[in-house]
Amino acid sequence: MSRIPVIAGNWKMNLLSSDAAALAKSVADAFAGLSGIECVVCPVATSLHAVSGVLAGSSVGLGGQNCYHEESGAFTGELSPQMLQDAGCGWVIIGHSERRKIFGEGDALLNRKLRYALQCGLKVMFCIGETLEEREGGQMDDVLKTQVVEGLAGLSEADFAGVVVAYEPVWAIGTGVTASPEQAQDAHAFTRGLVAEHFGAAVAEGLRIQYGGSVKPDNAAELIAKPDVDGFLVGGAALKADSFNAILSAAAQA
Ligand code: PGA
Hints:
The protein is α/β, with parallel strands linked by helices. It has a single domain (6-253), classed as TIM Barrel (Alpha-Beta Barrel), CATH 3.20.20.70. It is 44% helix and 15% strand. The chain has an eight-stranded parallel β-barrel, surrounded by six helices. The longest helix is centred in the C-terminal third of the chain and has 19 residues, at 181-199. The radius of gyration is 17 Å and the shape is globular. 2-phosphoglycolic acid binds at residues 10, 168, 173-174, 212-215, 233-237. The site of 2-phosphoglycolic acid has 13 residues, from strand 8.
């Protein structure tokens, strides 16, 4: 089965709305000339409306970086999937390692968020990945297993149509140290095997697994060439049109 690569920019807590809109415009212009890949940008919540306006008429998708598992109510500081949709989003990132580590979000909470976002009709990029300590301590397989089995618990085969898994080794995020193509392929194949074991072979075969962690224009081509690497979740290099558009081009040529 061929899986269409999905390349997403996670802009994290960066860019005011005018800069976000300008970046989105440049991405949309570049993406219009490419084929065979999907593209999503994930600005901060306060820029979603502005970016959504810029992306009207483009096939670049818009995503939030987080959401809560309730529609509305006394949840100060949170955003619901419905609010993301109201701002033009079709996607949301759930379980980024920064949410897990800095904000203490665990697998059970992330699973509730994932299931609710899917129920509301959002597509989800669900992030997993081990720390350096876990990798060096030989716990990588167990960590990925827990994140996959507990994080994706309760999803039906149909639900998986709205799910992309992002494998992001924490030691590669924002560090400039990228996983080698072989390390990425190994982890992606292991993750796909876990999904096959727990959710079925057909689900695993169709599931897109993005790599994230210091993806740059000069390593994108060799990473995307690996059979189980089905796209990227890009942080730092997504903040500049030149580098993100070069990553899009590398993926489109793969
Ligand atoms: P990076 O971030 O590309 O800056 O390493 C990736 C991510 O955190 O999604």
